[in-house]
Amino acid sequence: MVKEPKTVVNLENNIISLKHELNMAFKKLLPQLKEALERIGITSPTKFQKEVLPKIKGGANLFGIAPEGAGKTAAIIIGTLQKLECSAFEEAPRALIFVKDKAAALELEEEFKRIAYRMDLRIYSVYEELHIETQRSEIFAGTDIVIATPKRLNKLFYLNGINLGKLKMLIVDEADFLANAKAFSDLARIPESLDRCQYLIFSAKTHKRIERMRELFMANAQIIEHK
Q: Domain Helicase ATP-binding: where (predicted)?
């Protein structure tokens, strides 16, 4: 009988070890979150998620730089749900997520609700194409997670249309759009009014606006970069 080469056995062992290591990362999630992920077929994190999720849970300010397909947006959803303990609390939002435009806001809201539909978290998106008073009323009725374009959130904030006094997380998804000077300016005004908050900036690549955010309010942020 011809024996299998030891290199094959070692390779199989390495694969088993890697799968075990990846699966262990999800074992630290809240049971209802892990169950929600399993329900939609997500049983283990990507390598990028494996690295960033513990840091999000630990409260670190973070720049996550990785290409499309690395799982940046899913990491935001998982990390946010875990941080907010998968449950509603009072009326003011605790997580604020900036996105490029209406389409991105609605897509992210849908993904959040797909995972969190058995949780009582209140998730709402705001953008320019909807009447601002309608959005103001919805927010004050009680929200946990607000997904926003910088322009609309900035206007809501200065019209006293949103209370950020309870905010725990400020996140930017696919932050490449901040290369636009107006979008960057609208977003950069918000942290000036926050006391204590965790900042997460995820992007496919770094650029000077992201570096500027580091100077303004993320001086001690960690950087995780995957290519």
A: 53-224
Contact 141, 92 (CB under 8 A): no
- The pLDDT of 55-62, averaged and rounded, is 94
Domain range annotation of the chain: 46-225
Q: Which CATH class is domain 46-225?
A: alpha beta
Q: How far is CA 63 from the centre of its chain?
A: 11
The CA distance from 115 to 111, in Å, is 7
In this prediction, residue 19 has a pLDDT band, given cuts at 50, 70 and 90, of very low
| This prediction's pTM | 0.88
Which residues contact residue 4 at a Cβ distance below 8 angstroms, ignoring those fewer than 6 apart? Answer: none
Residues counted in the chain? 227
Q: How far apart are CA 17 and CA 20, in angstroms?
A: 5
Which of 207, 216, 162, 161 has its CA nearest to residue 185? 216
